Amino acid sequence: MKPTMRGVMLCAVMVSLANGGESGKIDYPQELSAEKQQTLEWFSESRFGMFIHWGLYSVPAGEYHGKKVDGIGEWIMKRGNIPTEEYEQFAEQFDPVKFDADAWVTLAKDAGMKYMLITTKHHDGFCLWDSPTTDYDVVDRTPDGQDVIKALSKACKKHDIQLCLYYSVLDWHHPDVSYRNRDAKQDFNRYVQTYMKPQLKELLGGEYGMIPMIWFDGFWEEWWKPEMGKEIYDYIKEISPSTIVNDRISSDFPRTIIGDYVTPEQNIPSVPTSNIKVGDFWETVLTMNNTWGYRKDDNSWKSDRELIRTLIEVASRGGNLTLNIGPKADGTIPQPSVDGLNAMGRWLKVNGEAVYGTSHSPIGMMPWGRLTTKGDDKVFLHIFEWPRDRFNMRLEQMSGRKIKRIYLLEQPEKSLEFVRSGMEVRFAVPQPCPDPIATVIAIEFETKRKNK
Ligand code: H79
Description:
This protein is α/β, with parallel strands linked by helices.
């Protein structure tokens, strides 16, 4: 599916991740099944979801033996060079007495999110579900012993949120692939056949409900070969035909794209919006501060304005935003994350129509804000710079059709008067600015099929 196009886009935005294997491209023409098409449609309409990084790294929270370990919190095992036996002991302190799956899901729902994406197993190899393939999991090793994925799958079902799963290919704990014991006894293929595949079956086979998307990460180690990526992609098609798979399953990423959607990290694709072809699905994953897994010293929280405008930016380019929280080991969520999400939820309650199920801007970015469209009869203007009196805009490339109505999403019953001359439309806006973060104006056109 347009691998060249995707390759170009990713090279532009993900240079930091560009470290594929040495092997050549594998030709992998993709025919998307009807089931996958349907999931991709759901994915694209949803626009906004929650990422959750939770695991043993939440215990040290950025500090080891009283000393800071720099970098993203979930990498502390490697960056802090913590011996495996010592790292394993964090499990005894992973005691989420305040974990409330319903509360997490409700937080996502109130923020206007449609899905939740959680780390079932991050690079450290610790599993958040009761896996029969290992005892290095939350049920077998922690005091509370609760299957986190099961609890979340129940809560998600109850609140109509889709549960999606993150899975790290690389594993610092598994003896067959861990960088800690590179020796002749290591058997990469044994890990794939007897560990990774059974685990994916446990996760996607039905126990946790239908999982619409799986999000692989940790594709860059030498031992992970393009054939293995293809094998896993095909395997998922077999065990869960509706589940869409992200691009990072390919070890040659981003040069070879296997997968159904593209996942830029900490970055919104910066190519002109007109270069993103409709039908290419992507999702920007983003932190609310500077870490994925909880770090007690990271207080660089994004403002409400930055969060809301980022969501608009992403939607105006036709993508999804999956925004991360890093809960603490006791199951609580840092308050600044909760506050930011609530602010987004309040904005979406008024303006959600201009985000969910929309398409990218027909005219790129404007100095005053961003645009989204819905169907062929609605354009939404997300205004960042509120005009002092009148708003002038050229409608070229949008619609030559008659304007039916112009109104603010926060006051939909009140039409704004407008004057149209040729391709230009002019209208007065109320003062003061209703929402300095972003006020949305809807322009509704006459539909083509009008029987009058
Ligand atoms: O889970 C979060 C991060 O832990 C994970 N992805 C998000 C969602 C992530 N880990 N690393 N990165 C993202 C950045 C990757 C950096 C890399 Fe490299 C540069 C991979 C290959 C080259 C660092 C240097 C790791 C290997 C060499």
